[in-house]
Amino acid sequence: MSAPISLQQDFWNSWNAECRETEIQDVSVRQAEVILGWLEQSGRRDLKILEVGCGAGWFCPQLAKYGKVTGTDLSDEVLARAKQRFPEVDYVAGDFMEMDFGTPTFDVVVTLEVLSHVADQEAFVRKMKSHLRPGGSLMMATQNRFVLKHFNRIPPPAPGQLRKWFDRHELRALLSPHFDVREIFSVSPKANRGFMRAINSTKLNYPVRTIFGNRVERLKETMGLGWTLMVLARKPE
Q1: What is the pLDDT of residue 210?
Q2: What per-residue confidence (pLDDT) applies to 193?
Q3: What Cα–Cα distance (Å) separates residue 141 from each residue in 33, 71, 85?
């Protein structure tokens, strides 16, 4: 079920003000780490980058190391404050599905945990593709339905919060008609119920991390047990 854009805007203005202007959680930090790694591999500093659903705009200044960044989000009040903090970024508030950035315009489109919160996900994917130059890259993070459904208690959606998660197979099926999918993998093992809660507990993992560092966490990610699915995909030439 969808919700009016005005109601979605109210929700995300409130959520971003509470959860992204004050603190960036470890799940988001890990997503950013992966994206920045991909950008670093490009070896370029002249990219045109679009971040779709940039929230409070926190990640855009890090992306700006690699070129010119445009950040867009429905949260107009939050982005107005982001413009004051990060004047080097071009922030554009509004409904991405109604925006026209030109076609094709960008070398890279980045989107973190946005796909699950849009009404028409197929159209959302097509629109991101339309703004990419041939050979351009989509760098995406989205919630891992398998992990959230089986190992986590998640509150029901709030008014104005749309929600439809994907597992890795569903995500590949959604993207493959439009992109050459290069990588799909999970990051950030996280659980608050069932046996995975114990396996991921801070107390249990402290001695493990002391001995093995992040190797066990990376193994869980490889097994698909991460909260987030990361995707690197390429628009065909």
Answers
A1: 65
A2: 80
A3: 11, 16, 25
CA-CA distance, 49 to 87, in Å (whole number)? 16
CA distances, 117 to each of 5, 136, 162, 170 (Å): 12, 24, 5, 16
Domain assignment present for residue 154? The answer is no
Q: Which amino acid is at 138?
A: L
Mean pLDDT of the 74-101 span:
96
- Give domain status of residue 214, yes or no: no
**CATH at 100:** 3.40.50.150
Domain assignment present for residue 87? The answer is yes
The count of structural domains within the chain is 1
Please state the separation of Cα 178 from the chain's center in Å. Answer: 18
Q: Which domain holds residue 105?
A: 5-143+160-188+226-234
CA separation for the pair 235, 185 (Å, rounded): 19
Question: Considering the domain boundaries, does residue 17 fall inside one?
Answer: yes
Whether the model pTM is above 0.90: yes
Q: What are 155-159's contacts with CB under 8 Å, separation 24+? A: 158/11, 159/3, 159/7, 159/11
User: For 143-168, what is the mean pLDDT?
Assistant: 95
Q: How confident is the model at residue 217, as a pLDDT?
A: 77
User: Per residue in 18-76, pLDDT tens?
Assistant: 999 989 999 999 999 999 999 999 999 999 999 999 999 999 999 999 999 999 999 99
Strands (DSSP E) found in 66-105: 67-73, 90-93
